[in-house]
Amino acid sequence: IRVMVELNYLQAVPLGGFNYDNCIRNTALMAQTKAGAKMSYTKTGTTICGVVFNGGVCLAADTRATAGSIVADKNCEKLHKLAPNIFCAGAGTAADCDHVTEMIKRDLELHRFNTHSESRVQMAVGRLSKHVFGYGGHIGAHCIVGGVDVKGPQLIEVGADGHHKPGPFLTMGSGSLAAMAILETDYREGMTQQEAEALVVKAIEAGVYHDLGSGSNVDVCVIKRGKVEYKRPVKSDNFKLFAKPDGY
Prior knowledge:
This protein is an alpha+beta fold. 31% of the residues lie in helices and 29% in strands. The chain contains 5 helices and 12 strands. A hairpin with a 2-residue loop joins strand 11 (218-224) and strand 12. Helix 4 packs antiparallel against helix 5 (193-210). The relative contact order is 0.19.
């Protein structure tokens, strides 16, 4: 006996993996603009990098946040804590980097509470990659995740489209071309912590000097087994004249 099951709810299930409503919106906007005009966007700027050394990982970033040609923040914090043993350097849209890394941080903390185990770098990368992939690259979070877990020091790059790849040294952002020139020239295996710190600072400074979207100071985070050193800032080219820790 064949029983016909009512499956009307299937007709309400949206089909396809992506939403293309913005394509229709962009077409309508283009029709209202002058002939030959293009959709404009706000350019962002950053230089971030990471290096694996003997016994740990070293992350670094500049501190300039821009809104087009305007310097919006001279002391922006681009190194984010995901777990006690995992940090992340973020480039792209400041709000996206802040909120996405905070979401991953909460997920990892809940996982530690439930499993009573240390967070793993690959899990943080998996959660981050899965989240941004679902938005087809529209979340402006380009991240370099670094940490030390049971597998040792690890450094993994996660693009805004969800693609991720590991490496002994990585750099992202608008100043990454200048930074990569330094990293490819001076990096070697088995570096000490002091050598790694000097290398990432030199790479970030290359981005600061050759990219208008990068600038101000250099922040460094060193992650080793059971120890994290967050140095903010390491080098200060733009001193903050007025500061009140409790806020204004």
